[in-house]
Amino acid sequence: MKRYVYINDENLAKDIYCDNRISNRKYTIWNFLPKNLWEQFSRFMNQYFLLIACLQLWSLITPVNPASTWGPLIFIFAVSASKEAWDDYNRYLLDKKANEKEVWIVRQGIRKLIQAQDICIGNIVWLRENDEVPCDLVLLGTADPQGFCYVETAALDGETDLKTRSIPSACMGIDGVIECPSPDKDIRRFDANMRLFPPFLDNDVFPLTIKNTLLQSCYLRNTEWACGVAVYTVEDFYHVCVEMIRGICGIGNQTKLGMCRGIPEPKLTAVDAMIDKLTGAIFVFQIVVVIVLGIAGNVWKDTEGRKLWYVRYPKEGPWYELLVIPLRFELLCSIMIPISIKVSLDLVKSLYAKFIDWDDQMVDPETGIRSNATNTAISEDLGQVEYILTDKTGTLTENKMIFKRCCISGRFYGNESGDALTDAQLLNDVSTGSADVIKFLKVMAICNTVIPVRSKSGTISYKALSQDEEALVCAASRLRMIFENKNGNILDIKFNASPLRYEVLDTLEFTSDRKRMSVVVRDCQSGEIFLLSKGADETILPLTYTGQQVRTFAEAVEQYAQMGLRTLCLAWRKLDEGEYQEWASMFKEANSTLVDREWRVAEVCQRLEHDLEILGVAAIEDRLQEGVPETIETLRKAGINFWMLTGDKMNTAIQIALSCNFVSPEPKGQLLIIDGKTEDEVCRSLERVLLTTRITESEPKDVAFVVDGWALEIALKHYRKAFTELAILSRTAICCRVTPSQKAQLVELLKLCDYRTLAIGDGGNDVRMIQQADIGVGISGREGLQAARAADYSIGSVSGTSLFNSVSLMAYNVFYTSVPVLVSVLDKDLSERTAIVVFVITIHSYAFEKSEMEEVAMVALSGCIWLQAFVVALETNSFTILQHLAIWGNLLGFYVINWIVSAIPASGMYTIMFRLCKQPSYWVTMILIVATGMGPVLALKYLRYTYRSSKINILQQAERLGGPILSLGIIEPQSRSPLDKDLAPLSITQPKNRTSVYEPLLSESPSATRRSIGPAQRFDYFQSQSPLASTYTRKDN
Question: What are the Polar residues biased-composition ranges (predicted)?
Fold first, then answer.
């Protein structure tokens, strides 16, 4: 289905298409109550509590006031709903800030400021340099006379390289109509047409491509201004519902980025899932008990009960009489699942989340941005993560490239000093005018899309399409080859104070398939034409002229790769005028074709890029975020697996993975590559990699696999079972050139294998992955706030009556049992136990006393509170003032509250607490309850610490004795070998005709445990057992 966008005429589209309001909200005012109740009652535990509460409304079967259950139930649902409302309100505030951001639009030739949410289809949006694009635009004009502008798409596809965008070739006015397809999530394609109204060019139709667009969440760079017409906008859920009611078809988030995000689903934590399962199991057990006891009770009633005059059973009862006794037993058995557990969990989760907000150590020192827990319901899952899936750009790296070393004509520079820019030999060759060095520096300074900017003080800075290009141009400038000015296609260079001028005739742009970039330039002084090229070694080295020796350059590439440096090969060739003119006509024709344009352009480029003279190899360092390698190494030792999901190139991703300790160094490791463009190629590659992984499974090797987006798409669609097995066998994966949708699919694949996943990213292209993961972490970084807005964390009595009074029972469920557990978030290791001794001791202590039922009930309740306080105190490992206040303050608060209630005549507890506190038997009973209840607990604790100490027990004892705990390594059961102490350097060998099995490479961390189909050897205390590969689902040994 097509849509027609009338330029600068919003009235024709205002009632058809949605506006531009961003929304990451989960609820609206209208659907909050029903949707929240539906989500809460979708959990079995809540359904169980509702069933018990409803049964207590039947006075014939319940011995207590229904308020004892309905009160806590309403309270916990109110707390949960309030917490959800608060989380959603915070998301609303973030959306509101984005929606109310002011943007310029042009109406009838006049610029006007409006809010971003008010942009309509057909509006002309005016952007200034460094502005964020608020919706999908078709470019109509720029400050550049040739109609070009530059955009940063890192928030969209994860690539930091700036992209060139241009206005349509025949865009002479702003009055016309754009015919574009229905919204889709393909961020690399836009097939549309534009027709300008007469008198422009006789109403001809002009094709539009993705290069004529500015997509939402990109940033305008290196361009003073640009303007474009809005073709796809954003919409929130509320307006979608209104439009659906009105019968309007244009609904939903219609930008390409919005289509990639998807709809977030409610997240269920591992603890909640476990409690639901336990609740279900206990409920089944209750049903069995209720059936057995119900049948026995009815049989006794019919055979013996009706004979007893004091029971007063009627001779004939109603039809539902058989249900009364079983349902009474059900209510009696309901204490097996205490409702207080729900109260405690919700309050503890909220407090955990606030601790994240309050943590002063989780503040970015550069920006001052604090961590924030947007979702307060999943805090406990942070300690159960098994897989971390991370973006690369802006998450692992800083995107700060530095030129470090180079090899020119077989001579290495920078090996001794570690920095080629300070290498004495290179500086001397520059001073003496070495011909090979000058050629190398010219390619560094010219073969790029860099724009030099001169400040008022005269200093020159560079705005580059990529950090690589900026590093090369800056390095050339320091080596006296200074790129001074760019005027259209004319480049002004100065070398040793001598001016040089070149005209750029054509630019052969970099693509993921070509893996190289070239420019055709003319020397304005001599008139000679040159082809300058730079790119990956596997694409440049095979293009050399016959006879040139490239072995030294290949060795340089391998040496620099071992150091974790990014490498680029530089080359050039002189062209004849006739050869260039013939090629230029073919190049122009290929760029104007509408069918298979990219393939045609690549074919024409290949006709020119041959017989190159290799000048040398440049090595660039990509700086990592501070502490990334150490953090990843520590988490891998803890048994957490890492996957890198990036839109960047494969070579770049591999090098970053090596630098980050994503994969371990050799000699014991392997890096396996899955590639191919067809089903057969991907199938063979996947089978080969999977076979290698199975073979190495019996060996202590750290196997990682690499896959690009194209092969991943085929594998997930046609060979999902095999790919899933590979994912389980490999602890590490590097996925390159992947789309936002593919990132989410990989997260979903691991979740289907019953793994707990955490996804972290900082761009709009990471939003869907973050929403799909069990835990989503968004970074408020250079790529905007899209990820942070969508993330969970941003950087982070069989007698027929009740023993207890209804008010006391409700308070026990809501307050007395929840407050001590609530402060357990301050403890490091806590477990709570209960004892049946309370009832036994209470009944026997008051067996011969003339006491009211309420007195006995209060004694039993007091025993519960006392025993609970001492058990919690015993199980607490690290006391703080708050914990003392909560444990003993809770005990004191119990007496204060009940003294107040006992003073109220209508409370049903009048004078009871006053009388009890005066009785010595009451306090003796408390001592007996605590002593009897704590005896088994102390005995078990002694046996556990003395004879079956866990690792945490050992560490706790060492800490209490004052012993040093210097590192995690002291609890490793296996010592490291000499080989582990001296790890060999990394090595990447890229042979010309390499196979998918990329080895030898990488070794395992000495403390990591390999996943194994057969027996596996445990290397480290922290490493948990892994699932069996053959089942594709998690199985704990």
Answer: 1022-1037
Q: What is the pLDDT of residues 71-112, one digit of tens each?
A: 878 887 887 788 788 878 888 888 888 888 888 888 877 888
Residues 6+ apart with CB under 8 A from 356: 362, 371, 372, 373, 379, 793, 796
End-to-end Cα distance, the chain: 53
- Contact, 344 vs 817, CB < 8 A? yes
User: What is the full DSSP assignment across 481-537?
Assistant: EEEEEEETTEEEEEETTEEEEEEEEEEE---TTT-EEEEEEEETTT--EEEEEEE-H
Question: Cβ(858)–Cβ(913) under 8 Å?
Answer: yes
Greatest alpha-carbon pair distance for the chain in Å reads 125
- Helices and strands counted in the chain (H then E): 34, 34
856 with 846: CB under 8 angstroms? yes
Is residue 864 within 8 A of residue 833, CB to CB? The reply is no
In angstroms, the CA 221 to CA 1024 distance is 47
Residues 829, 850: Cα–Cα separation, whole Å: 44
Say what the pLDDT of residue 581 is. Answer: 93
704 CB neighbour count, 10 Å cutoff: 28
Task: Give the integer Cα–Cα distance in Å for 592 and 671.
Answer: 41
Positive or negative, the CA dihedral 427, 428, 431, 433 is negative
Q: Measured between alpha carbons, how far is residue 26 from residues 261, 513, 776, 790, 816 in Å? A: 14, 41, 15, 10, 33
As a whole number of angstroms, the distance between CA 652 and CA 422 comes to: 26
Taking the CB of residue 834, how many other CB atoms lie within 10 A of it? 13
Pairing of strands 176-181, 372-373: unpaired
- Torsion sign, CA atoms 648, 649, 653, 656: negative
Tell me if 801 sits within 8 A of 853, measured CB to CB: yes
- Which residues are tagged catalytic? 391
Contacts of 339 (CB under 8 A, 6+ apart): 49, 69, 72, 73, 76, 813
pLDDT at 981: 35
Token readout for 916 is 């009890």
Question: DSSP strand E in 155-307: where?
Answer: 162-166, 176-181, 192-196, 205-208, 213-214, 219-221, 225-232
pLDDT at 675 over 90: no
Q: CA nearest 3: which of 18, 17, 19, 22?
A: 17
Query: Hey, what amino acid is at 892?
Result: L
Convert the pLDDT of each residue in 546-569 to its tens digit: 888 889 999 998 888 777 687 899
Three-state secondary-structure class, residue 350: helix
SS3 472: helix
Buried b (16+ CB within 10 A) or exposed e, 114-125: bebbebbbbbbb
Radius of gyration of the chain (CA): 36
Dist CA 655 CA 940 (whole Å):
52
Burial 555-573, CB ≥16 within 10 A → b, else e: ebbebbbbbbbbbbbbbbb
> Residue 895 pLDDT > 90, yes or no?
no
Handedness of CA 538, 542, 545, 549 (dihedral sign): positive
> Which of the 8 DSSP states describes residue 1011?
P
Rounded Cα–Cα distance for residues 673 and 688 (Å)? 10
The predicted pLDDT at position 300 comes to: 83
Beta bridge partners of 477: none
Q: How confident is the model at residue 572 (pLDDT cuts 50, 70, 90)?
A: very high
Q: Hey, what are 223's tokens? A: 């361009």
Q: How far is CA 194 from CA 17, 150, 412, in A?
A: 19, 22, 54
Helix or strand run (H / E) with residue 807: helix 806-811
Extended beta strands in 243-338, E state: none
The pLDDT, as a whole number, for residue 250 is: 37
Helix ranges (H only) for 616-735 are 628-637, 650-659, 679-696, 709-718, 720-729
